[in-house]
Design goal:
By secondary structure, this protein is mainly β. The chain folds into 4 domains: 3-23 and 650-783, Jelly Rolls; 27-209, Spermadhesin, CUB domain (Jelly Rolls, Sandwich), CATH 2.60.120; 245-490, Beta Barrel (Thrombin, subunit H); 540-644, Immunoglobulins (Immunoglobulin-like), CATH 2.60.40.
Length: 784
């Protein structure tokens, strides 16, 4: 590469960012209900024999095998093992729930179905539904029989769902149902034809107590073994007291956040997280914070170790984010969970500082009264006093405080297991609490500077407990993650001076990413919409898909909201997609009477026969919303369409082999397979810290979309991915991965795929330019 190109690339690194399409995954989940389920009111109609049937157990579940979990997934889960609370029993696979259980005809017409499942010795259950479709007028209720006071209250361990309350993406994670039994009841009213579907993916059992005992026994065996051998087996070897602590023991020194009313506003930005891991079939508990960001983006900040398998993107649809889970000072009984969103999206992670950023794709309802926490990612500001608000063991929010010398950036490196996050004084704060402690479930909670009310760190873990006040915890510093790429999502912009833009071939202002934002209350514009799915897949034998969109806010009286949809063919396609994609009813009007209903239409592919040109075609379906009484109202939502010859994997495409680094290529980029897969060997001369830049041919000046995802595979194994992010600098078509560390003698594949389907590898004809090269320390330092 000539020197002019090299200089241009470094200038490009100063300003590259990419836009993100705003699609909907998260859904508000109805939890505790003041209205009794219809099926319960109809129980009195059943004869005694019918009532007796409800008490019979339909499925006896075996206990989940915690020993097998440790044998097969201990290294995979790592320090997240401390947060693991739920585990699916072995041998229980996905099943059609309506094919099990009992159907009972009601005397006055209609049907009642029930399914009772039991796990002897289980403390609680959570159910993951892979498919929930309810017919209009039907109702599903999931509850713990011991928590509903003989069918008179649906508050604790009870969820009532009608068709309008099922998440639009038709997957559902229930809240914890306490006790050994969980009962499902479904009511179908008289005169309706059932099109309902109910598929159960996993029935998760609370194994926190048994898991703690198993870890205790395993660590004891390891200590005995250590007397005979010099090397311990690799795995999570956390101190036993950390596993033996629970939320009851920690509240002895860690008060409820409501004991300190001055922290009420900050607590409104802290959440409890139920993180689903499909690989290990577990649910772990973490804490997190909803942070302020430019342009109204909604981000969830937590610990990177809260999810280990980032390649299992479908698992994020099952995540639960619990808002406002607080309890009065000195509480003895936990309150019901009420404010819940389901579904998040992976945006960014930094494993060194243990920071994970997730997008909350849907709007946070106003009635949640959420406060977006501010943040400070400057490495110059060390708080003199700080607090942590967290959900220990998933319990109501608690607060821990640290003053003065208890918070340090100069400390000896702690002895964490070699396969885990390694806190150091270069990456973490060490916190020795003045009051309070943390346990499993506190991971990911924010460390908040009391002077500013801004988040400065995220909890990795540690040794704090109520018995020994000298034991510290470790919080990953936002300033470290900021320099590694977090700025690309959370930064606002200020102009510093001028320079030459390689991407625009013109003189432009050089801009700097501000590393701090204040907190603010959540507000959103009137007339918000939801849309599902976020992506539609088509194959030659699958030519029709359903599109659903709906109002999240009611229109004004006499107002009509007009929707109009159109197809946009994405660059890189072998042909223009528009003639081959048909949308039924591209226009639809909503009035106040339509609020709460879902508009459903069909998207069809036609004329492609059995051959898809190029094997892959991509398009956007854009839906815009306007108002007949308020000209200022204009909303645009996007859904991705992917048409494939057959399901694909990046491994089937011949890669572009890069003989040495740095590597730079411009459009048109030649590839024998036509797909964007690049391969290079990290030899001893090139193993170092790398920068990766991928730029896409601009779609248009008006359609702002994220073009793709850049993923790295090390020796064929998923390593990291970067999906499109917020673009404060105005560049719509580039992604920049700074300071990525490669290892000697490893083989790396860089795969550029569709942001909504990592297996849909995009065509090289969609790429404007790519760069893989060694990071320049002087350039890297000037980035920040």
């Amino acid at each position: 590469m000539v020197s002019a190109d090299r200089a241009a690339i470094w200038l490009l690194l100063l300003v590259l960012l990419v836009s993100r399409s705003d699609t909907v995954l998260a859904e508000v989940i109805t939890t505790a209900s003041e209205t009794l389920p219809t099926s319960w009111n109809l129980l009195k109609e059943l004869p005694r024999a019918g009532l007796a049937q409800l008490d019979l157990v339909d499925i006896e579940l075996p206990p989940a095998d915690v020993t097998l979990l440790l044998d097969t997934h201990e290294e995979h889960l790592g320090s997240h093992l401390r947060n693991t609370k739920y585990l699916a029993p072995q041998g229980v696979e996905e099943f059609d729930a309506f094919g099990r259980g009992k159907w009972v005809p009601l005397p006055q017409g209609g049907l009642l179905w029930s399914l009772r499942m039991q796990s002897k010795g289980a403390l609680a259950h959570m159910i993951l539904f892979s498919k929930v479709q309810l017919t209009q007028g039907s109702e599903l209720v999931v509850f713990s029989p011991g928590a509903v006071a003989n069918y008179t209250t649906c508050q604790h361990s009870c969820m009532r769902l009608t068709r309008s309350e099922v998440p639009a993406f038709e997957k559902l994670t229930t809240l914890p149902m306490q006790g050994e039994e969980v009962l499902l009841m479904y009511y179908q009213r008289k005169g309706t034809v059932s099109l309902s579907q109910l598929h159960i993916l996993n029935v998760m059992q609370d194994v926190s107590g048994r898991l703690a005992s198993a870890v205790h026994a395993r660590n004891r065996r390891r200590r005995l073994l250590q007397e005979r051998v010099t090397t311990l087996p690799i795995g999570t070897q956390l101190p036993v007291p950390l596993f033996q602590q629970d939320d009851s023991s920690i509240f002895g020194c860690t008060p409820s956040v409501e004991c300190d009313p001055q922290y009420g506003t900050l607590a409104a930005g802290v959440v409890s997280i139920y993180a689903v891991d499909p690989t290990s079939r577990t649910i772990g508990l973490c804490s997190g914070s909803v942070v302020n960001a430019p342009r109204g983006n909604r981000y969830l900040l937590t610990a990177d170790h809260c999810i280990r398998d980032k390649g299992q993107l479908q698992g994020f649809e099952y995540w639960l984010v619990i808002f406002n889970y607080n309890a009065p000072c000195g509480f003895t009984e936990a309150p019901p969970i009420r404010d819940v969103l389901q579904g998040v999206r992976l945006s960014y992670y930094d494993s060194t500082a243990d920071v994970l950023l997730m997008t909350i794709p849907n709007l946070i309802p106003d009635h949640f009264h959420t406060f977006l926490l501010g943040f400070n990612a400057s490495d110059l500001d060390v708080p003199e006093a700080a607090i942590a608000i967290h959900h220990p063991g998933g319990a109501p929010a608690a607060v821990s405080t640290v003053l003065g010398s208890g918070l340090s950036t100069h400390f000896p490196k702690p002895d964490f297991p070699p396969t885990e996050v390694q806190p150091s004084d270069k990456t973490h704060f060490q916190v020795t609490w003045t009051t309070g402690a943390t346990i499993g479930g506190s991971s990911g909670s924010p460390l908040i500077d009391l002077a500013t009310g801004k988040v400065v760190g995220v909890l990795t873990g540690g040794y704090s407990n109520c018995q020994d006040r000298t034991q510290p915890d470790y919080y990953g510093r936002l300033s470290v993650a900021w320099k590694a790429g977090l700025y690309q999502y959370l930064s606002s912009v200020e102009v510093t001076n001028t320079g030459i833009s390689f991407a625009r071939h013109s003189t432009v202002a050089v801009m700097q990413a501000n590393n701090s934002l204040p907190g603010r209350a959540v507000t959103h514009s009137r007339l918000a919409f939801g849309m599902y799915p976020t992506v539609m897949h088509f194959l030659p034998n699958t030519t029709s898909r359903t599109l659903t969109y709906y109002l999240l806010d009611p229109p004004m009286e006499n107002e009509t909201v007009i929707t109009s949809a159109r197809i946009v063919s994405l660059l890189g396609n072998a042909v223009d997609v528009r003639p081959f994609v048909l949308l039924q009813n591209p226009q639809q009007n909503f009035t106040l009477a339509d609020y709460g209903t879902q508009f459903v239409t069909q998207v069809n592919t036609t004329g492609l026969n059995e051959t898809i040109p190029g094997g892959l075609l991509r398009f956007l379906l854009l839906v815009n919303f306007t108002s007949n009484v308020d000209p200022s109202v204009y909303r645009l939502m996007a859904m991705k369409g992917i048409i494939q010859q057959a399901p694909e994997s990046w491994t089937q495409f011949e890669p572009i082999v890069i003989p040495s680094l740095p590597y730079y290529a411009k459009f048109p980029i030649q590839s024998s397979s036509g797909r964007a897969v690049f391969r290079f060997n990290a030899t001893s001369s090139s193993a170092a810290v790398l920068d990766v830049v991928t730029c896409f041919v601009p779609q248009s000046d008006t359609v702002q979309i994220g073009s793709g995802a850049t993923t790295a595979y090390r020796n064929g194994t998923f390593t990291w991915t970067l999906t499109p992010y917020n673009d404060p600098f105005g560049f719509k078509n580039c992604m920049f991965v700074p300071s990525w560390r490669s290892f000697e003698d490893d083989v790396y594949n860089i795969v550029i795929s569709d942001q909504d389907d990592f297996n849909a590898v995009i065509q090289t004809s969609a790429l404007q330019q790519v760069y893989f090269g060694l990071s320049n320390e002087s350039i890297a330092s000037s980035l920040f």
